[in-house]
């Protein structure tokens, strides 16, 4: 398998959806807890990214296997071509298993370097990632996909990026002693992380929502009944808009209650390009033309958050 074919199989262009929560979580760990562990951060980044590649590859492979219209998918020797190269099912399956084993190995290493809570949270995210694409009724084929993708990546990655740096800062602990397993959670700190991660949750959920809106008719033909099918395309588009405005509202609330620096209010300038992009999406929902708007808005909003978080750090230590 060539590199271009592999990158297409794992949809490398979509990995930005996991990189931004990682950066935001890492910056917030330094801002809020004054802690940064470069070794744990690198291990987590590798495990997170490779697992993301794995779930995408599984998703594409399972979509092909379940599709009634084989021409929509191109991961078998007997049908279509990826990057001018034919890829056999055997090659795809081996690639998936190798990536899975590497991601698991890095995850175990990270647990050794931190504590068992990383294992618990990582296991939950792992199960959701697998069930998202695998099984008789994957989450991606249900009206729950937006919720699970948004929370798992938007909150899960942010939380773990913070925790691997600040696992001994009193956020939470999982202690296994003899026959007892004790979980201790600092509710305020978890709420703080949850509120700060809301823009990530909403903008990631919107990537999937935009995809499902644009693919509604095709998904129905392939017996894939996603959220827009149940609430109608009209209300799905309304929800798509509302989640962006809720992201800005979450930033304002975070500043008001002291979870974030007032510098973060500068991110509100991103409303201008986001609003312009929404007008284009509201006018037409065509995969080839307007799906990319969800990616653009995700990048605009989260880039603004990253820049302002970095600025908050600078001003904090001046």
Automatic annotation (TrEMBL):
Broad class of where this protein is predominantly found: membrane
InterPro entries from the UniProt entry: UbiA_prenyltransferase, UbiA_sf, UBIAD1
Membrane topology, record value: Multi-pass membrane protein
Compartment list: Membrane
Residues that span the membrane, as ranges: 12-31, 43-62, 92-110, 116-135, 147-167, 187-214, 235-253, 259-278, 298-315
Protein name from the UniProt record: 1,4-dihydroxy-2-naphthoate polyprenyltransferase
Pathway involvement of the protein, from the record: Quinol/quinone metabolism; menaquinone biosynthesis
Domain of life: Bacteria
Keyword set, alphabetical order: Membrane, Menaquinone biosynthesis, Transferase, Transmembrane, Transmembrane helix
Pfam family, one: UbiA
Gene3D superfamilies named among the record's database cross-references: UbiA prenyltransferase
Keyword Transferase: yes
Entries under PANTHER family matching the protein: 1,4-DIHYDROXY-2-NAPHTHOATE OCTAPRENYLTRANSFERASE, UBIA PRENYLTRANSFERASE DOMAIN-CONTAINING PROTEIN 1
